[in-house]
Amino acid sequence: MNALEVSNLAFAYGARQALQDLSFRVEPGSFAALLGPNGAGKSTLIALLTRLYHLQQGDIQVMGNSLGQQPRQALRQLGVVFQQSTLDLDLSVEQNLRYHAALHGLAKAQAKVRIDEELARQQLDERRHEKVRALNGGHRRRVEIARALLHRPRLLLLDEASAGLDPASRLALNRHVRQLCRDQGLAVLWTTHLLDEVQASDELLILNRGRLVAQGPAQRIGADDASLAATFARLTGAEELA
Ligand code: ADP
Ligand code: MG
After folding, report:
1. Residue 193 Cβ < 6 Å to ligand 1
2. Measured from the CB, is residue 39 less than 6 Å from ligand 1?
3. Which ligand places an atom closest to the C-alpha of 207?
4. Is the minimum distance from the CB of 98 to ligand 1 under 6 angstroms?
5. pTM score, whole prediction
6. Contact at 8 Å (CB) between 83 and 163?
7. At 61, which helix (H) or strand (E)?
8. Residues forming a β-bridge with 206
9. pLDDT below 50 — which residues of the chain?
10. How far is the CA of 62 from the centre of ligand 1 (A)?
11. Which end of the chain has a smaller Cβ tally under 10 Å, C or N?
């Protein structure tokens, strides 16, 4: 069974076609990088995967559950970190998580256990009583990851989670999520417009103007960083990095 299976997905905003003929899968425990320039359709895809938008065409299955037909079962297997942070800056780390646990219907005692667990996993236990406002960007993102994992999904979606972070925090966050993927057997769909967040061992999906223009093991698409950069530039018209 695949963690995620997207079949013949298409989506339009009125007359504007945002996604066309998208098919791909993400296997359990694998790290998939969805790479595409601004406007490629990454956030539109995340909105469809999280059911913020209704399916117009095609099908999405999460751990074998169709999002159209068994939305609750499908959504239960899925955790998400949206492009725009959705934390309350004036609540503490723990309060943000507690609120979310309640939304998921976790009983108080169970919520406490899960919050302790996730904060430890994200190395945030010592920050739990601080307001989110006091945390730096990388730590705020980790709070969002902890929150996304409270209900123990099998698939984690991150939409440009590293955008706006300084280069060191950006790569630290990327490494951190890879570690979770390895240690927890979590499937990850990591969207980005930055090539240096892709590693040779990733399943790579290159999205341009709503279409997948390449998909497969990153090392096959570009034998090394330089040729992956060239391939990305050729396929998307993006300027090649010097
Ligand atoms: P990305 O996340 O890759 O930057 P988006 O999914 O945000 O791309 O956008 C894909 C395309 O859809 C872009 O051309 C964008 O202008 C368009 N688009 C996004 N949101 C809307 C919307 N609410 N209404 C109309 N067009 C939109
Ligand atoms: Mg986006």
Report:
1. no
2. yes
3. 1
4. no
5. 0.94
6. yes
7. strand 57-62
8. 35, 214
9. 242
10. 23
11. C
